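Case 404 in the screening queue. Each case pairs one protein sequence with one candidate compound; here the compound is flavin-adenine dinucleotide. For every case the pipeline is the same: read the inputs, emit a complex structure as tokens, and attach any notable structural observations.

Predict complex for case 404.
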Amino acid sequence: MAGVAHYDVLIIGGGAGGLAVASALKQARPQLRTAVVEPKTTHDYQPGWTLVGGGVMPIEKTRRPMADFMPTTWVQDAVAEFQPDSSEVLLTSGARLSYDQLVVAAGLQLDWQRIEGLQDALGHDGVTSNYRGDLAPYTWQCVQNFSGGRALFTQPAMPIKCAGAPQKVLYLAADAWRRRGVAADLHFFNHGGAMFGVPLYAKALDRVMAGYGATPHFGHNLVAVDGARREATFERTDGSGRVTERYDFLHVTPPQSAPDFIKSSPLADAAGWVEVDRNSLRHVRYDNVFAIGDCAGTPNAKTAAAIRKQFPVLVANLLAARDGRPVNGGYDGYGGCPLTVERGKVLLAEFCYDGKVVSTLPLDPTRPRRLYWWMKTALFPWMYWHIILRGRDWKRPAHIPYGG
Ligand code: FAD
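Case 404 output:
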């Protein structure tokens, strides 16, 4: 195999999932030859973009040099093609890498182009999105400059990353306008039929929406934006046609899907995500392939909170498979969504597979609390940089090795 670099474990993507796995593997088996393929030179703390758009966190606090968190060999390139039958990947540079085991952690793809006129409209005349870090400061600028009128917020079809983010921005903007005494006519256009996928939290969020006098429009999918006319067009999902709405401020959450290079690969399931078992995170057809985070075809909420629970399971199972031991680690589908219902209070929605409500602290999970605001604005960012990206699992002290 001359000219093809070989790794014991090759990790695709240096986002939250990829770096957590790479760091944990480094601690568990420093002798393994591992590498991360990642094209970007900065790492983004995406959960912070809601706070940037709400005027709570400066954008600089969400960006760090990738090199500061890369625990192993960094191949600064991108995967163009998976070739799992020969355990190889082809990079966009033309180079090939081979592996014993592969971890796919490439995140998801934002499909801005699926909304006609959106890309031209973004970033000026009141059209923004916290899903682009560079636009999150513009969201806050728009909120500050808003002097009244119609404010529209959109949510596309699931799955998306952080299903709560499309409404968190509404609450923080509405709270800012209420404090300033600005009259805002608030509308939330949602492809789905409820404010949240878990009924208990949906009910609590209906009350938050009503408290702001915001009108939810379910079964509405954004299909076009006319920036010059300040109009947004929605397709009704019940087949009853299109409706065009005027806006003074528009926050768009774009449609999202699996990255194209995963969709077109043998690793994909019917929807394009990496087809892994929902508990073991091991591929159902390729025993030496695992996936973590947003690109995994598991029916959990696509969040960094999920990755915190996924990476110890994935690393334990990957090492078990390597050692010939049974793969029996189980991820329970945990996901968490800190909903910033006002400046100073968060409703912390936590849940597992099949909508099972859980609560890390013994408190009523439907009540917004100041404690959770502190966790969202101070504790979680700290945990992200120092616990998750460093591959630390506080349930597993460093002296207890992964299996074996
Ligand atoms: P990412 O962190 O997106 O990383 C994927 C990496 O793969 C990237 O670095 C990318 O460059 C790389 N990559 C892509 N293509 C290739 C390729 N071809 N080859 C090699 N590498 C590639 N989560 C929470 O838990 N709580 C929150 O409050 C929260 N709020 C959010 C708010 C917003 C506005 C957004 C956008 C997200 C939020 N999230 C939240 C979700 C969270 O950020 C993601 O779920 C998490 O970052 C997913 O991690 P990942 O490793 O799967 O993907």
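Case 404 observations:
- The two ends are 31 Å apart (CA to CA).
- Residues 12-18, 37-40, 46-47, 49-50, 78-79, 105-107, 130-131, 161-162, 165, 259, 261, 293-295, 302-305, 307, 336, 338 surround flavin-adenine dinucleotide (CB under 6 Å).
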